[in-house]
Each structure stands twice: as C-alpha cells, then as structure tokens.
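forwarding from the other thread:

> can someone predict this with iron/sulfur cluster?

sure thing
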Amino acid sequence: MSDVNRRNVPDNLCPIALDYSTLTTGDWRAMKPVVSRDKCVKCATCWLYCPIQCMVEHATWFDANLTNCKGCGICAEECPHRAIAMVEEVEG
Ligand code: SF4
Ligand code: SF4
C-alpha cells in the first residue's frame, strides 16, 4: 500500500478496498474471442461495446487484448459481420 496511511484508515474496512490487486481480468476467462481477419471490416463496433475497452486496433482489423479480456462475449454478439467467434479456453 503506497499512497494510503493505514493509521488513518478505520480497521473495519475490507482490505481489498485498500490494496491494489495485481490480478488481471483475463486470468479467470473460460471463453476467448477469436477475430476472423477475413470477415473483419474494422468497423470498431466491438471496440465500442467492450465493457472494459480491451479491443485493440490493428492495421486492418480489431483484436482482443487477452490479458484483460474477461470473455463476456459481448463483442461477438454485437459484431455486425459475425467476425468474432467465442472459443473455449484450454488449460495450458
Ligand atoms: S465489430 Fe466485427 S467487423 Fe467490426 S471491427 Fe469488430 S470484429 Fe471487425
Ligand atoms: S469478450 Fe468481452 S471483454 Fe473480451 S473483448 Fe469481447 S467484449 Fe471485451
């Protein structure tokens, strides 16, 4: 804990609210989005709808930053060109 002086913090607060978590939202994902570069027309609809803004722009397509993507599937639902498939994660 760097910025907060613990002596000023009531001891009945949940410690999760005081310490920055190093967990990334991609750690517990069960499904991941896979973008077809042939189908993607770079309309950015997925970028607009992703609730954590983890769609990344490339030269001619968008793709998900899988470090943060939580696999909710909203991008695949909203893609007007059906360019995103949700694929099951495999233990690696
Ligand atoms: S919404 Fe679909 S077509 Fe549009 S940029 Fe995203 S992946 Fe590509
Ligand atoms: S699956 Fe959810 S979190 Fe991941 S890129 Fe799509 S909308 Fe964003």
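The mean pLDDT is 87. thats all i got for now
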